[in-house]
Amino acid sequence: MTQDRVSEELFERAKRLIPGGVNSPVRAFKAVGGSPVFIREAKGAKLVGEDGQEYVDYVGSWGPMILGHGHPEVQKAVAEQLEKGVSYGAPTRAEVEFADVLVKAVPSMDMVRLVSSGTEATMGALRLARGFTGRTLIAKCEGAYHGGADYLLVKGGSGLATLGEPDSAGVPAQIAATTTVIPYNDVKGAERLFLDHGHELAAVIVEPVAGNMGCVPPDPAWLSALSRLTRATGALLIFDEVMTGFRVAFGGAQERYGIKPDLTCFGKIVGGGLPLAAYGGRRDVMEQVAPAGPVYQAGTLSGNPLAVAAGRKTLEILSAPGTYDRLEAISAQVEAIAQRAIAEAGKKAVVQRVGAMLTIFFTEGPVRNWADAARADKAAFARFHAALLSEGVYWPPSQFEAAFISLAHDDEALEKTEKAMIRAMAAA
Ligand code: KE4
User: Fold this and answer.
1) CA nearest 425: which of 354, 343, 319?
2) Do 28 and 133 lie in a common domain?
3) Does the Cβ of 384 fall within 6 Å of ligand 1?
4) Residue 423 C-alpha to ligand 1 middle, in angstroms?
């Protein structure tokens, strides 16, 4: 494939105008090297670069595009709303009907607040947990990502379950210290945390399937342990389903694993690719959110009519019987393609998948937590990624991300993926 000169020139220009040339760091391809592809348009499972090169898309805008790009019914719903205006800053019938869809789809949610990004959803949920419990300390997992709030950009201190340290410049140490960090899938570590700090904890926030260290499924006892421990100490259990919501099941990971959190955060798919996210849960907790209660949270574009139109139509399509069976069948094919390519190339790599999200780790499996993931051969992943790209397959540009499969990944896309995967695995 010809080097994408057009994207390279755009990137040089972008770097003079936008920090790192991108509006979100992972897009800069820093983890894999080379210059990012600038995308001109997309349709179904296909992206088209500025130089006209076509790619099978396994990023899907980092999760939202589970129907594929440019689904005609979603486009129509957005176009119809466009005729009526894009934003009012006032309540609308559509957002009430959408809230009804959400609480019906997610059994643990009695009420929901719409916001514009996953970061706002987790910020809202955590301030609410602190306001409801009157406690300050929160717990997150090492290697998990829950958006950009200061107290979430925190890495584990030395030793287990100690108070967090800033994981970004600009995060004050005293803010980071309001968060403690525990290893994912570490029931004993969680039990120790609750023994030491249980009655100080406002909440534990967890990705019920980890996606931001690469795809790491929960051990069978993990989520139930967190549920048991939070219930026993009055801390709230927050499922960050920004990535897993409506992806690993229509009712999210909580439906798949049968665990009811106190609060849940959604993003990505619920907005159908437009800026819409949400947090919700127990009525007695959600009633504390302003203006019903004392926990303040607001947003100019919250419940934006265009985004609600896209989200409602997306969930309506996803709710059709058999949808997740089809998604599972496609995703299993992608997993099998990757496994065959690994076997043929004799590579030390493992595929980890839950539903329509998967990661190929260049390390021995199983990868159960951040420490395991961090042992992956990032250089091999970078070679794999570059080779896939040169074969017209657009894979997430980081070993520590999940690839996302859509209902639009048809046989043609999978055939192209298989050919590319075999060559790319050999080059890894
Ligand atoms: P946003 O603020 O980016 O909408 O959502 C933050 C967020 C919260 N929780 C989870 C579990 C998430 O995965 C995310 C965002 N995910 C990343 C991809 N790993 C978005 C891509 C990016 O940062 O550009």
Assistant:
1) 343
2) no
3) no
4) 30
